Structure formats: C-alpha cells, structure tokens
Amino acid sequence: MKKMLMSLMVLLSVMTAQAATTKKLYGKAYDLKKTKVLYHEVHDVTLGDDGFNQKVETKYLDISLKEFAALKSTFKDNIFVPDSELKDSRLKRTEKLNLDGNKAKIQVMTEGQKDQTKTISIDSTSVAGQGFNNFLLKYFDELATGKSKKVAIVVIPLLDFFKFTASRVGTASEKEETVEFKIQIASVFLKAFADPIFVKYDKKTRNLLEFRGLSNLSDEKDQKQQVLIQYSDSPPTL
Fold first, then answer.
1. Measured in Å, how far apart are the chain's first and last C-alpha atoms?
2. Which listed site, 4, 38, 98, 121, has its alpha carbon 20 to 30 Å from 83?
3. What digits encode the pLDDT tens for the residues 158-217?
4. Is 77 in contact with 56 (CB distance < 8 Å)?
5. Which CA distances in Å does 177 have to 52, 143, 197, 202?
6. Do 41 and 24 contact (CB within 8 A), yes or no?
7. Residue 110, Cβ neighbours under 10 Å: how many?
8. How far apart are CA 52 and CA 1, in angstroms?
9. Partners of 87 in beta bridges
10. What pTM was computed for the model?
C-alpha cells in the first residue's frame, strides 16, 4: 500500500510538472485598421526549464475556423534559431529551416515550381521564425530600460537574413503596464521599403499581447500582408 501511494505521488508530481511547462496561446489577425479579421492562430507552446519556448506548434485557421497552414518549431541547440517547417495548403508550399551547428539550411518548396535551397551562416545575433519571441524575452530588461539590440533576422521565403535593430517605444515608467518594442531594419536604403514591426508585452507577466507588421503568411493570392494580431487565452469562435 505504501509503495502504491508513493508511486501515485510521483505520478501526480510528474503530471503537474508537465502541465506547468505547456500552454496555449491564441492570436486573432486583423488588417492594420482592424476592419477585417484575416485569420486565427492557435499556438501549443512547450516551455523549457529556463522559461523559453522549447517547442511551438501553430495552426492557422481561416475565418470559418478551417485550418489552412501549420508551423512547427523545435528548439534544440539554439533558443533563437529553431528547426522549423511551415506547410501552407492554400499555396501548396512548404518552408523549412534545419540548423546544423552554425549553418542553417533553408528550403522553399512550392508545387509546380523548382525547389529553392540555400545554406547560410548563423551567429550569436541570428534569429529565425518563432525564435524571435525568445530573443525579446531574453533581452527584455535591457530593451525595456531603453537599450537597443542588433539582430539578424532570417527571412525564410527570401532564403536570406537582414540586419535589424530592436528597441523600446516610448520612455520607461514605473506605472506602465505594457512595454512595446520596435524592430526596424538597419539599412538606411531598405528602410524606405520595409516598415518596422511592433510587438507589445505585458510588463509584469511578459505575456505577448500584440504584434503589428508584416505577417509570416502570404494571403491566398500569395501577396504579402500587414497585420495586427492580438493575443489572448481565449480560443477563436465563429
């Protein structure tokens, strides 16, 4: 009987630990003027012992809540650059990144078109896909107090990376409940063609609240789209 109770306690403790390291997050994507819902996001997040995302599985749903794309990111040796695979059934396209040491192999495969593949070098400033949230959380305190950070963001569809600068919006205040970060492309020339990205967090919990900028998804006509995504713990409804 004593052994059974001990086994039960161990099982319960393991289940509790597992429950504490997983969470769901829901995103609702609008056009920038918030006049139209474009799609929904459902994120299943597994956190590591360090509090950073260890694995993220995301489903993208249209306004009828039908899944049209899925993204899986697995963080192995680099919390900023995960192995990732995005499958978009609308465009019959798969985008992949596989990390091997300081090299990242990028593949873009579209049905009826020639596969595109490129290997690029990765360093300590590199960030890709859903590793961007880990980057902002890692340097949250520095950014929130007004410091800026250089970052090289891998843009998988373009098979390349571009240098950006991350900084906070506004001045730090003890009374502020949220913190907003701005991610601006570093090249003076490219600034004329690339709008900045804005990401807002709850200052106390550091939960992601809002994203504003270029979506990682093209629309159904394969055109880039600017979006406003608001995040919550409430699942999407019709």
1. 51
2. 38
3. 999 999 999 999 998 889 999 999 999 998 777 767 899 999 999 999 999 999 999 999
4. no
5. 22, 15, 20, 6
6. no
7. 15
8. 40
9. 70, 94
10. 0.88
SS3 at position 136: helix
What is the pLDDT averaged over residues 59-65?
A: 98
Alpha carbons 62 and 119: distance in angstroms, whole number: 33
As a whole number of angstroms, the distance between CA 140 and CA 207 comes to 11
Residue 12 has pLDDT above 50, yes or no: no
d(CA 112, CA 124) in angstroms, rounded, equals: 36
> Which position has the token pair 């959380």?
137
Q: By CB neighbour count within 10 A (0-12 exposed, 13-18 middle, 19+ buried), where does 201 fall?
A: buried
CA–CA distance, 211 with 27 (Å, rounded to integer): 9
Q: Residue 134 and residue 130: Cα distance in Å, rounded?
A: 8
Q: What's CA 38's distance to the chain center, in Å?
A: 18
AA letter at 20:
A
DSSP, collapsed to helix, strand or coil, labels residue 104 as: strand
β pairing state of 126-128 and 116-121: unpaired
Which tens digits make up the pLDDT trace of 175-192?
Answer: 999 999 999 999 877 776
State how far the Cα of 122 lies from the Cα of 12, in Å rounded to an integer.
41
